[in-house]
Amino acid sequence: MALCSFLSVLLIHITLFVSLCYAADPFVNYEFEVSYITASPLGIPQQVIAINGKFPGPTINSTTNNNVVVNVRNKLDENLLIHWSGIQQRRSSWQDGVLGTNCPIPPKWNWTYQFQVKDQIGSFFYFPSLNFQRASGGYGGFIINNRDIIPIPFGTPDGDITIMIGDWYTRNHTALRKALDAGKDLGMPDGVLINGKGPYRYNDTLVPDGIEYETIEVHPGRTYRIRVHNVGVSTSLNFRIQSHNLLLAETEGSYTVQQNYTSLDIHVGQSYSFLLTTDQNASTDYYIVASARFVNESLWKRVTGVAILHYTNSKGKAKGPLPDSPNDEFDKTFSMNQARSIRWNVSASGARPNPQGSFRYGTINVTEIYVLKNKPPVTINGKRRTTLSGISFVNPSTPIRLADQYKVKGVYKLDFPTRPLTGAPRMETSVINGTFRGFMEVILQNNDTKVQSYHMSGYAFFVVGMDYGEWTENSRGTYNKWDGIARSTTQVYPGAWTAILISLDNVGVWNLRTENLDSWYLGQETYVRVVNPEATNKTELPMPDNALYCGALSKLQKPEDISLATSIMGRSRLFFTMLMIVCALIPIFR
Ligand SMILES: *[C@@H]1O[C@H](CO)[C@@H](O)[C@H](O)[C@H]1NC(C)=O
Ligand SMILES: *[C@@H]1O[C@H](CO)[C@@H](O)[C@H](O)[C@H]1NC(C)=O
Ligand SMILES: *[C@@H]1O[C@H](CO)[C@@H](O)[C@H](O)[C@H]1NC(C)=O
Ligand SMILES: *[C@@H]1O[C@H](CO)[C@@H](O)[C@H](O)[C@H]1NC(C)=O
Ligand SMILES: *[C@@H]1O[C@H](CO)[C@@H](O)[C@H](O)[C@H]1NC(C)=O
Ligand SMILES: *[C@@H]1O[C@H](CO)[C@@H](O)[C@H](O)[C@H]1NC(C)=O
Ligand SMILES: *[C@@H]1O[C@H](CO)[C@@H](O)[C@H](O)[C@H]1NC(C)=O
Ligand SMILES: *[C@@H]1O[C@H](CO)[C@@H](O)[C@H](O)[C@H]1NC(C)=O
Ligand SMILES: *[C@@H]1O[C@H](CO)[C@@H](O)[C@H](O)[C@H]1NC(C)=O
Ligand SMILES: *[C@@H]1O[C@H](CO)[C@@H](O)[C@H](O)[C@H]1NC(C)=O
Ligand SMILES: *[C@@H]1O[C@H](CO)[C@@H](O)[C@H](O)[C@H]1NC(C)=O
Ligand SMILES: *[C@@H]1O[C@H](CO)[C@@H](O)[C@H](O)[C@H]1NC(C)=O
């Protein structure tokens, strides 16, 4: 008995220490002032969304297990939420920054996000998730470095470079929104930006004089890690650097089998890390190119994204034609084969010392299957809308997670169909009922004529297959059950399907959406609600003290919320020393 109670007291103490260590993980703090600035990336002045006066915003630089605190001040004239794309928000969909989980930050308010980047490494990005704002900027990179004790599957790079690429309109997000609300198509974008800047003047006819372009300076004979994110509206881009190989190393938090590519297709919302060796003779600068994919070149009379790779010993300006893009505008087979060639390095360590492939996803039995089918836009109740499985999602005025917390009834329906509806499409707040600790298979079937990319919050999923035609049960025979990549955003080619597997181990309400902004804006999304039936605080963090209220709960909102984060400072030195010793011993278990 005595031993038993001694042990349980010990256990309580260890638990206490572990939870304090969690609090003792380092903090990284950022202040984000989000406002409009005037910029002319394509030579025409327009209002863009800046963070701390900069477009793109600062790169968040963190390390696994860091507590990230971002105080967001909304100086726009409309609501704001920042979404951390690919950051898994373990146990806390409260911080995800999408309308299903958070009330928006009203103009003139600030709200402080606080979350731990748990068990992740890799290259991610953030962006404003409401009202088409991403089309006006407001985005930036988000790096999670490995902890020192975790080896990475390549030598430490000599530098780390973030590159944001994306299609761009000279109309601002309010104008684009207005077009969509009026049932119009957005038409062709006006160009492609690299790091918020227009193209280097690669062609005097196409590119007007005086446009500011991006220059990336490198030293010869080194290796750089370059992290490339497609943050555009809806265009798949081909990324390449003249005369250089791109050694693919990581995508959205997973190390890949390392392979050289002369160019890689990066679809909207996707992130990749390449290792770039500066092994050329620097007789000139080199072009860095992000060009639109699958467009009719005789119609796409738009500028391509062109930046400059400048060696410190460069002997002259970049000149001549841009390096060739894959010459297959209307045949996506090359692109699909390239996507299939991106595989998981199962023996590399991820965020933990154990191999990435120690979770044998191919041997786990699927517990639920959803076929999600998108179609070209339709008219519902006189409005142009997009659908997923025949449902056009309507965001509730009370976020789903908040409604659950306060038991507000009738906010949403847990009835998202497992197979596409065959009747007339409809507008609904219809949500997927995910089973906690279930293993879900989702088939994304693209019946539209454009590439779509799909993203899920809260998880990395395994991309196990993609092919043309309609998915059938027999398609499972082609699945990669061994080294399919784990990531958070996958492309689905038109007239084709992509199959993903998701281990539903993260409690919360998670957005599943297309990344193509126009399709998303018009309703192509849903949420997956994952609830632990057991009443415990271990699988989900409590609602943050500063949570905003809106919709049916708006009367709970205080006019000003001035809650301060509690500090662990001021505890006794002895206690702190003991804590440090225990903390130093446990990282290996986490
Ligand atoms: C966006 O563009 C419209 C039309 O050009 C203009 O009236 C409006 O002021 C702009 N809004 C913002 C927020 O820049
Ligand atoms: C991130 O911060 C670490 C130090 O914590 C530093 O070594 C590294 O160079 C930084 N990375 C970038 C891309 O700024
Ligand atoms: C996979 O990771 C291991 C362990 O870090 C590394 O030694 C190996 O080179 C990597 N393999 C490939 C093909 O990238
Ligand atoms: C510049 O672009 C125009 C229009 O696409 C094209 O006709 C012309 O050949 C290009 N010039 C050069 C030097 O490539
Ligand atoms: C990739 O290309 C570089 C030359 O740019 C070469 O040195 C390296 O061996 C190649 N790596 C692989 C894995 O093919
Ligand atoms: C540099 O390399 C290019 C090919 O990449 C070659 O055409 C050129 O002659 C080389 N210049 C010198 C000075 O070696
Ligand atoms: C590209 O557009 C031009 C001009 O509309 C058209 O004549 C041509 O047939 C198109 N090419 C393809 C392959 O669709
Ligand atoms: C998966 O299902 C099969 C057949 O239903 C069963 O024999 C097997 O034990 C299951 N595997 C696991 C890991 O649960
Ligand atoms: C949701 O799924 C759980 C099992 O995970 C089941 O118990 C529950 O009845 C389902 N709810 C609805 C509304 O279908
Ligand atoms: C869309 O679905 C219909 C009916 O299944 C099929 O006939 C058509 O080929 C599909 N189109 C695309 C682009 O997938
Ligand atoms: C969870 O934590 C809250 C306070 O944060 C507490 O009120 C509640 O009783 C806890 N629930 C359980 C099941 O421990
Ligand atoms: C808002 O930001 C200001 C300036 O950083 C800070 O002093 C204040 O505490 C913040 N308020 C809230 C509610 O986070």
TrEMBL record:
SUPFAM superfamilies: Cupredoxins
Swiss-Prot/TrEMBL cofactor(s): Cu cation
Protein location: Cell membrane
Gene Ontology MF terms in the entry: copper ion binding; oxidoreductase activity
Gene3D superfamilies listed in its UniProt record: Cupredoxins - blue copper proteins
Membrane disposition: Lipid-anchor; GPI-anchor
Superkingdom of origin organism: Eukaryota
One Pfam family of this chain: Cu-oxidase_2
Similarity comment: family membership: Belongs to the multicopper oxidase family.
Gene expressing this chain: LOC115971740
Organism expressing this protein natively: Quercus lobata (Valley oak)
Name used for this protein in its record: Monocopper oxidase-like protein SKU5
GO cellular component: plasma membrane; side of membrane
Signal peptide limits: 1-23
InterPro entries found in the cross-reference section: Cu-oxidase-like_N, Cu-oxidase_2nd, Cu-oxidase_C, Cu-oxidase_fam, Cupredoxin, CuRO_1_AAO-like
UniProt keyword Ribosomal protein, yes or no: no
Membrane spanning residue stretches: 572-589
Plastocyanin-like domain span: 34-147, 160-313, 398-534
Keywords attached to this entry: Cell membrane, Copper, Glycoprotein, GPI-anchor, Lipoprotein, Membrane, Metal-binding, Signal, Transmembrane, Transmembrane helix
